[in-house]
Write a structure and sequence with these properties.
By secondary structure, the protein is an alpha+beta fold. It is 38% helix and 25% strand. The structure holds serine.
């Protein structure tokens, strides 16, 4: 009997537990503190700072089953999904990690034992092949001498280009960051499949599949390409759970393993599409529903940039595959329940967020339908106005990029009109966009010298705001120095400090560092790994490393920051009560002026919801709970359901902030002593900052009072200027409004009267071209509404004919409105769009419309008087 995927995952973790590894939970798909890594794409991401030596590891050996997404960014498999048996955009990566503990020898031995020992995976040794980097003779020797793999199965792989370590056997997380040579393990699925061993000419086939990558992390790649040696040698391995499951379940494709078989069968039932086991589109949809559901669960929502944009593309790709299968209804969201049924083991959140995930997918699919419709309309418009029979590649790319129109679809539609698409220009635009994306996919470590100086500063500022301590390091322009002189800027590192380093949304403190003869003004405080840096300028005297100083935090500012921070906790708990449990914090800012809280929510909050949240928070303030800080084990925090950030790796012992029974949150920030100190809480703004993400801004205490005063003053000014009071202001406003409407109507009526008068005089200018009545007339500075009214009025009087009004604006901008009566269109005599096309061909400009009414706009016309003559001439040609 084959092992199921859950057994396989557990066996891997158990094996490494036996080898002294701590089992750590998967982090979320949104990497913590890493703006340029789109998604967690490998087991090692959550340990990046440990590899770099910036954080201390809690355990020297750990093992994980990490959920990963490889779509967008450096490791991107999106376009392969559906075309190979082994690529997925969402997968689980099984990994074992050593942080400065074991290195190549044990890593290779462990891997071999797990794969081949008959107590574990028991794979045939003849089926396994490995690669090593050509310069990594140490790994090569271990495989050849210490492991009983056939020698000819160990293959040395060189570099792809002249660049050293540009190789499949050199792994790096991104353009910068931890990296090192690697040894990859492949499985031979047998000669039923095409392809050759790695390194051979046929290596791209499907026969030999990479299953495990053992990376020996020893460098930190810099943005200029240089490799800096890291202080310790580490190991990062990653094995695709779905790939090893395919092998252990005796199948070739990932899509044939237990979980995918069940999922695909449910999808085929729901969509009524026949599942003949070879249907690529069903596989794509199955892959994409996993990716999209987990991304939404982890807080990504569709949008036009960054992570949200990638999610949007994946959803659209799934929907287009649905269309390929003939599914015309909105269907993607219906796949969430079966997914949850088969993948619940991965995350409790999935079930909890079910309704939210379904709603996001439903809304997005509906939006895409509208977008497709708009794109189609745009394409048709372009086709009407097209000169020649080639559609520009830029237009096709725009349709692809803006409307999610796949090139194939554009080509299909064009073909029906006998038009080709300029593929070369399309490819060029695509390349340019990819280059742009690559350039923005870089992350930098600011002040890296400070990050890597690895000094531990102790924060004493929860209790103390003034503290006698010692300067242990100084930096000027990111370089360590011994002294900073008067008027010079720099960064001071203290042994102990009461200054809070900006983190967790709370801004850094400001204040002063004083010795008997000098003063350093601290304008901001930041964290660099474990180091707290005081940024500022020497106001008088000079300061030197080793000197004793008194560190004094600006107390008033700190107090207001703390009040706002405590209020943010109350706000979060209130939102959870009022809006639901899908609220995930997406960001926050707490300073001495106000607080800002960003969270996932799919719609604008109603006035009632905002008021309810405000009421709840104020009630908790007035209860005046003591605010307690405790240090507890992370496991206890998890079991107690204490609020924590989803994308953060916490220490073993964590700090929890409690406010009565109302709020308990993990937090390193500073807080008030009692909720009552917050005084009053007022929401000043609720807005959207990205699709699916709302932002609340609020104020507390004295700032809240001054906001109330401002509102009062504003109201008073309105009363004075409208000669009203709080009893009659609303009725006054309604009165103003209805008076305005009445006046507007009267004006409109008068304008129409005037137009009818004018049109009567225009009628006299009608002439015939052949048997068709024609009126070509120049008017000046008319707005769109009167212009269309005038044209309608003329059309009614004319009964049959063509009317062209040339509206000349002040800056020689011309808009031409063309109306054609129905009979002429039906008899194929003339159509407004044909005339538009001719006008654009001869006079330039842009335009469009329908057969009975169309418009053209032309900028910067030099000689406006000639336009009527030219149009007249064109009409003669057509009629
Ligand atoms: N980081 C390596 C990879 O993703 C091994 O985990 O392949």
């Amino acid at each position: 009997m084959h092992k199921n995927i859950d057994n396989i995952r557990q066996e891997f973790l158990n094996f490494f537990k036996k080898k002294g590894h701590e089992i750590i939970a998967s982090s979320t798909l949104i990497p913590d503190n890493d703006q340029t890594l789109l998604f967690t794409n490998s087991g090692m991401n959550q340990f990046k700072n440990i590899f770099l030596g910036m954080d201390k590891p809690l355990f020297k050996r750990v093992t994980t089953a990490q959920r990963c997404v490889r779509a967008g960014g450096k490791h991107n498999d999106l376009d392969n999904v559906g075309y190979t048996a082994r690529h997925l955009t969402f997968f689980e990566m099984l990994g074992n990690f050593s942080f400065g503990d074991y290195f190549k020898n044990e890593a290779i031995q462990f891997a071999w034992e797990l794969l081949t020992d008959n107590n574990w995976f028991n794979l045939s040794k003849n089926k396994l092949w490995v690669t090593v980097h050509i310069c990594d003779s140490e790994s090569y020797d271990i495989w050849i001498k210490q492991v009983d793999i056939p020698n000819e199965h160990v293959i040395k792989i060189g570099n792809n280009t002249d660049n050293f370590y540009d190789s499949d056997n050199f792994w790096q997380m991104g353009n910068v960051g931890p990296c090192g040579p690697c040894s990859e393990i492949f499985y031979d699925h047998g000669d039923r499949f095409q392809g050759g061993p790695p390194g051979s000419l046929k290596e791209l086939g499907e026969r030999y599949v990479e299953i495990w990558n053992l990376v020996f992390i020893q460098f930190n790649r810099q943005s200029n390409g240089h490799l800096l040696s890291l202080p310790m040698l580490s190991v990062d391995t990653g094995m695709g759970l779905e790939r090893i499951s395919a092998i252990l379940q005796g199948v070739h494709s990932n899509y044939s393993i237990d979980i995918f078989r069940k999922l695909i069968s449910s999808i085929s039932q729901i969509t009524q599409v026949n599942n003949d086991n070879t249907n690529r589109s069903l596989c794509v949809i199955a892959d994409h529903i996993r990716t999209c559901s987990f991304l939404i669960q982890d807080g990504v929502t569709p949008s036009n940039e960054g992570r949200g944009y990638v999610l949007r593309r994946i959803i659209r790709r799934a929907i287009l595959h649905g269309k390929k299968l003939g599914i015309n209804d909105i269907f993607f969201y219906k796949l969430v329940p079966p997914l949850i049924k088969y993948m619940q083991h991965l995350s409790d959140n999935l079930r909890e967020k079910k309704d939210f995930i379904k709603k996001v997918l439903f809304n997005e699919e509906k939006l895409f339908e509208d977008t497709l419709r708009k794109g189609l309309k745009l394409l048709e418009k372009k086709l009407v106005l097209l000169r020649g029979n080639v559609l520009s590649g830029e237009i096709a790319f725009d349709l692809y990029d803006t409307y999610g129109f796949p090139l194939e679809l554009t080509k299909d539609i064009c073909l029906r009109h006998g038009i080709h698409v300029d593929q070369v220009k399309f490819d060029q635009s695509m390349l340019a966009q990819k280059k742009h994306a690559k350039e923005s996919n870089k992350f930098y470590i600011f002040n890296k010298n400070i990050s890597l100086c690895n000094i531990l500063s102790t924060f004493v500022g929860y209790r103390e705001l003034t503290y006698r301590t010692k300067i242990i390091a100084l930096f000027r322009i990111n370089k360590p120095v011994n002294k900073i002189c008067a008027k010079e800027e720099g960064i001071v590192i203290l042994k102990n400090t009461p200054f809070y380093g900006e983190s967790g949304g709370q801004v850094g403190d400001s204040g002063q560092l004083k010795t008997i003869s000098s003063l350093f003004q601290v304008t901001n405080t930041k964290k660099y790994g474990q180091t707290i840096g005081h940024l500022g300028v020497v106001n008088s005297g000079s300061i030197s490393v080793g000197e004793e100083i008194i560190a004094q935090v600006n107390q008033c500012k700190r107090r207001h920051i703390s009040l706002n921070h405590s209020a943010t906790h109350l706000l979060r708990a209130a939102l959870y009560q009022v809006l639901g449990t899908h609220i995930i914090q997406k960001g926050s800012l707490v300073n001495d002026q106000y607080l800002r809280f960003d969270f996932c929510h799919h719609e604008t909050m109603t006035e009632v919801q905002i008021n309810t949240v405000e009421n709840i928070v104020n009630k908790q303030i007035w209860i005046n709970f003591p605010i307690m800080a405790d240090m507890i084990p992370i496991e206890t925090a998890k079991n107690d359901g204490i609020v924590m950030l989803v994308n953060k790796q916490y220490e073993k012992i964590v700090r929890v902030i409690r406010m009565g029974n109302f709020s308990a949150e993990l937090c390193g920030g500073t807080h008030a002593k009692n909720t009552g100190e917050i005084g009053i809480f007022v929401i000043t703004k609720e807005s959207s900052i990205a699709s699916g993400i709302r932002r609340i801004e609020a104020v507390t205490s004295i700032t809240a009072l001054s906001v109330i005063h401002q509102y009062k003053k504003l109201l008073q000014d309105i009363f004075t200027s409208t000669k009203s009071n709080n009893k009659n202001i609303l009725s006054k406003i309604y009165e103003f409004k209805s008076r305005c409407q009445k006046l507007e109507k009267e004006i409109e009526h008068l304008r129409n009267q005037q137009i009818i008068q004018e049109s009567l005089s225009f009628i006299k200018e009608i002439y015939y071209i052949k048997d068709v009545q024609v009126l070509v007339k120049q008017v000046e500075n008319m707005m769109l509404n009167p212009l269309t009214n005038l044209i309608d009025c003329l059309k009614r009087q004319l009964k049959s004919g063509v009317i062209v009004l040339i509206n000349v604006n002040k800056n020689n901008k011309i808009s031409i409105a063309i109306a054609v009566t129905k009979d002429l269109i039906e008899n194929n005599r003339i159509n407004a769009l044909n005339l538009v096309r001719l006008i654009i061909n001869t006079l330039g400009g842009k335009g469009g419309g329908k057969p009975h009414f169309a418009q053209v706009g032309i900028n910067n016309v030099i000689n406006t008087s000639k336009i009527s003559t030219k149009i007249n001439y064109l009409l003669h040609n057509i009629l």
